[in-house]
Amino acid sequence: MSPVSIPPPQCLKKRMVVPQRYMFGPGPSNVPPRILEAGANPVIGHMHPETFEIMSQIKSGIQYMFQTQNRTSFAVSGTGHTAMECAIFNTVEPGENVLVGVNGIWGERAADMAQRIEATYCYCSCCVVRLQALSKHRPVLFFLAHGESSTGVLHPLDGIGDLCHKYGCLFLVDCVASIGGAPVYMDQQGIDILYTGSQKVLNAPPGTAPISFSERACQKVFNRRTKPVSFFLDLSWLANYWGCDDKPQRIYHHTGPVTAFYSLRESLAVLADEGLENSWERHQKVAEYFHTGLESLGLKLFVKEKRARLPTVTTIVSPPGYDWKEITSYIMKKHNLEISGGLGPSLGLVLRVGLMGFNSSEANVDMVLEALRDALQHCHRSKV
Ligand code: PMP
């Protein structure tokens, strides 16, 4: 009797086919040829000197992108969620309090993560509640999403870091949807932990997540009473693997995704070539051009206050009388273009369009506007 009873699957005998598609949802965004080609370089060892050199270039790129001098700046192997857990699992111990700013889904997820490590959490929705909560609950960590991709809100960051520090609290900011598209100054704004993902403005494939810890954050992490719940995300291991500590030797922790590092390195090089200020300005200009075009189509923007609009991901009030799912499917089928519906609290309420990194251009805005105009003409509309 043959020991192999499950035959090779027929589906694996066919060639894999992946379509070209316009990726104008909230992420991932399209990967330009320069970054794709970087990822096609040969695999070498994750502990080889050449890989360490590339990792060191990534660290410098992250310091530039985040505007920080923190030496504990590196990329987590994983997506934005991995970095989010890395931040929370390292800085918070069981029984401690976490304060979570809520302006969409990401605060809810941060609260869920805190709960899993037996920390307590409370929410705040505005400055006054935040101040009360900081003095009353004495949280060790305050979480805020700078760019809330579910609602399309850009949250101001100035002044919050100083306030947190006054109450002995670390300031954690999620800039997955905003970095490179809107200004963030990690050191000047007193942000203690900042993270993002590779697949949005950076236009690299998903799978690596830049993160940085301030000295204040490192002090808290390295003086814990308990070990962080995750071995994989333990900052002392990761800091050593990325050469951020004083140890003479780097010790094997996990096999770094080397080809993903090549792509990330190149995406940071593209951002450095353009310059942060130019990139922020381009995203803002293109977003305003897009918003004007949407209004001339008769569509409404979900975020009323102009200053609070995220320039990378636009939320459009779901057109009354239409089924948002029919609109997104129509546009995908007819225009080969991804836009998406809402997420969490915005589900059913909005359409979301992401124009990030090299996707952020007036030509792409025209393409999305044309697709929307066509969908509004051809999708079923009920009387409202
Ligand atoms: N935070 C924000 C603001 C996001 O937009 C996303 C991705 N949509 C995440 C966190 C999670 O990132 P990932 O999907 O890469 O885990």
TrEMBL record:
<feature type="domain" description="Aminotransferase class V">
    <location>
        <begin position="22"/>
        <end position="354"/>
    </location>
</feature>
<dbReference type="InterPro" id="IPR020578">
    <property type="entry name" value="Aminotrans_V_PyrdxlP_BS"/>
</dbReference>
<keyword id="KW-0663">Pyridoxal phosphate</keyword>
<dbReference type="GO" id="GO:0005777">
    <property type="term" value="C:peroxisome"/>
</dbReference>
<dbReference type="InterPro" id="IPR015421">
    <property type="entry name" value="PyrdxlP-dep_Trfase_major"/>
</dbReference>
<dbReference type="InterPro" id="IPR015424">
    <property type="entry name" value="PyrdxlP-dep_Trfase"/>
</dbReference>
<dbReference type="InterPro" id="IPR024169">
    <property type="entry name" value="SP_NH2Trfase/AEP_transaminase"/>
</dbReference>
<keyword id="KW-0808">Transferase</keyword>
<comment type="similarity">
    <text>Belongs to the class-V pyridoxal-phosphate-dependent aminotransferase family.</text>
</comment>
<protein>
    <recommendedName>
        <fullName>Alanine--glyoxylate aminotransferase</fullName>
        <ecNumber>2.6.1.44</ecNumber>
        <ecNumber>2.6.1.51</ecNumber>
    </recommendedName>
</protein>
<feature type="binding site">
    <location>
        <position position="352"/>
    </location>
    <ligand>
        <name>substrate</name>
    </ligand>
</feature>
<dbReference type="GO" id="GO:0008453">
    <property type="term" value="F:alanine-glyoxylate transaminase activity"/>
</dbReference>
<dbReference type="Pfam" id="PF00266">
    <property type="entry name" value="Aminotran_5"/>
</dbReference>
<keyword id="KW-0032">Aminotransferase</keyword>
<feature type="modified residue" description="N6-(pyridoxal phosphate)lysine">
    <location>
        <position position="200"/>
    </location>
</feature>
<dbReference type="GO" id="GO:0019265">
    <property type="term" value="P:glycine biosynthetic process, by transamination of glyoxylate"/>
</dbReference>
<comment type="subunit">
    <text>Homodimer.</text>
</comment>
<dbReference type="InterPro" id="IPR015422">
    <property type="entry name" value="PyrdxlP-dep_Trfase_small"/>
</dbReference>
<dbReference type="GO" id="GO:0004760">
    <property type="term" value="F:L-serine-pyruvate transaminase activity"/>
</dbReference>
<dbReference type="InterPro" id="IPR000192">
    <property type="entry name" value="Aminotrans_V_dom"/>
</dbReference>
